[in-house]
Amino acid sequence: MEKVDVVVYGKSTPPPQFLSSLEDNADFINSIIVSENSPAKSVLEELEVPVKTVSGESKNCAAEKNKLIKQADTEYVLLLHTDFSLDEDLVEELLEELEETQADIVYPNLVIKSGNEEKVVNYPDLFNNELTVLHGLAVEDCLPESALLFKKSLLESLGQFDESYDEFDFYEYVYRNVKQLKMKLASVSYAVYEPSSNFIDTSYRSYALRNVVLKNYNWEKDIFPFLSWDKSPKIAMATALTIVGNRLSAYYDYFNASEFYRRALMEFHNQETLRQLIKAYVDMGLFDEAEKLISKSQGMEDKEVEKFQFFTEKIKSLVDELEKAVEQGKVVEIVAALQEVTTFYSGAPIHNILGVIKWLEDKKEEAFRFFYKAVTMNPINEDYLYNLSEAAKLLKKEEEVLGLINRIVGHLKERR
């Protein structure tokens, strides 16, 4: 059986079992390739397997992978982020599936560890059914981003990982090339994922969906073949647009989600899409816009109008009170109130308020992340943008913020 080169990437310090998991799979590893400045380098030097270090700084995760894969001697490489570790027989099983199917990518199921909690993720087998990754609009639900076998020659035939997607680069690669890829699940052994950070920049996911999937694939045949396009084209389009809006909302991109909801309502006015649009406005903190839609003239029944008005007005009132308390510096009172408020509402205004609190507590990095999330949810609010930009200047993260803005609203410039 062939051996593989392991490409180790990522900026985090590896978990304790990282080294032992590689030792357990050493019989099937040709060499390990790692950046010279990687936190994993010193750990890997303890292995008996040859370790090849590559010099030079990389712009981000995608650039690092592109550089390291080029140094591989084997046709298949095991992509391994420093947050991942392997079951004892995982590499062998991946190679067995590879030899049997000649797939381009072979991936395992996953165990996600967070503290004392474990979550098992069993992925679908995509072999000969690869377009499944388009149907749910969530490629990350279909296969892991790491601990998988990847054919080196794909970088020559289908292009490299796109550096503009940073750590979402692998998933963007799958989206972009799904019609040319054969992907196979190795279902017995597992990889273990222990996230070093609980922050996920979902703007990359939204951007890949809008910029790659929706632009490059046929909606009727590739993305939404399960809708009745021939019998009810307007209803099918409204349904498709609403599904897209729901997925973008799941990524906290309410700005673009609201656009898809509005387009859906223009195709076919329906109460489900209307409710989702109202919710998106509320989560953005656009309470006045939401209230304009809560009306019997929109086809809503009296009880539903009353319910939505009560909920929206209650949240608006609470946000106003919290923002006034912030201006008065009542940090202790705000923290206590937020514990209750966040049980039923955690929209952009709440994240902005949390950012201000962390800023006042001199926790600048945490403040930046809350401001970042607020702008992800609502990139047109001047206060949120100001707070984020000021935090970015202090922390020297202006490029990170410019990237976020470009991913969320950059397409608006193209329309002008």
From TrEMBL:
Residues 18-123 form the Glycosyltransferase 2-like domain. Keywords: TPR repeat. SUPFAM superfamilies: Nucleotide-diphospho-sugar transferases, TPR-like. InterPro entries: Glyco_trans_2-like, Nucleotide-diphossugar_trans, TPR-like_helical_dom_sf, TPR_rpt. TPR repeats lie at residues 348-381. It comes from the Bacteria. Transmembrane segments: none annotated. This is Glycosyltransferase, GT2 family.
